[in-house]
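Assess this one:

_____
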Amino acid sequence: MLMASQFYFCIIGPYYWILIKDARFIGYSWGAEAILSAATLLSIGTSIVAFSVMLLWIFMPYKGPPKTVGVVPYTRASQSLAYVSAAGLIGALGCLYVLWKALSLGGGVQRQDGLFLIAFQFSDLVIPVLIFLVGLKGYKPWVLGLLLLFAAYAVFTGLRYKLALIAIPLAVHFVLSRRMTITRGATVAGLFSGLLFFASVMTNYRRKFESIDLSGAKQLTTTGLLDGFFAETNIIFGLRSITSRHVDQGEFIYFQPVIDAFLELIPRVLLPGRRTGEYLNEMRYGLGSGEGFHSGTTYPFVGEYAMMAGYPGVVLGCILFATSAFLALHVIESSGQPANVRRIGWGLVAALFGYYAYSRGYSPQVLKALLFVMLPYLFFCMRMKSPARGRRRQPQRSPTPPAGSGNGYSGLRPRREWTNGSRP
């Protein structure tokens, strides 16, 4: 996934803006040199992450799932599935509440209703529940129902990353669960092409929390589709703004993103005066126009590290980023889960670290994804872990006879004697 993200964000994305858009973004001319310098920094950070994961894989090897796994007790398994069901119910109720509230009061409600924001955050619990159940149970009717509910919810909210966090693990599971053939490869390619086309349409016609407005669909052109496809690569401009406003001038924010990340977890009902994310204003001012300031342009994961401590911060942050991804993979692999659960878990790690956290560097947003998507999946895997793995069955012995019996009984079952090839 890192290779795909590097190709998309660091190679074809920048050249699209240079060759097709003439290095212009939201009314400001950036120049090819500025775009390529930001793409180079992102590519270097990606390489550091990949190299760090490789080193961890070599020097911190694990033996993989145990070969001998005991049977999980029925009570433990049922309790674990109860946790999964409870999380799925909470997430589904959050999706339904967001849909109902937005339809009844309009798309601007998310900025005013505290309960709406809480429901919107807890709706992400559907993602780990779906991924775990597909790997464990397959596509049961009730699993498909939950999948369709979340897909409709993601389309309505207009947030493409929610669809990606589901689609990428399912694609990994589809590819790795069976032997790859030409037909399966063509199916995966076709599904992903359709998903990319739909994502481009969402970019052009979405209205957040108000579904998709297709009233202008007849005006959709090839240029519009390309703009939608490459929309997320505008993080290059956010990264360039960071390097010019923070790194080049030596003005760093140090641990402010970490502080804001934990403050974001406190509901506004308990802390109504909290103010977070104000350090982003410098990056927004660096976009060169009032339109850019209000455009919602973000930056990749290396941008936050550069704001905190410059280029040394990028190196250290990328190492910590890689360590987090490796630990998640390690927990999944050592959980002793069935192969399908572990494979689809790889896809979730790839989607979360290789796409979501990679392209959205805002620490509070990334922390929430880890808490509501990655950690629940790891909890499900460890909760279903067998406590009896590796135990060998001991020889069965008969009860010890009373003392003084004098029959020379050794405690083991007596061996049958055969006489002249016939039973006694």
About this structure: The mean pLDDT is 80. The chain has one domain: 2-383. Residues 2-383 form one domain. The first strand starts at residue 24 and ends at 25.
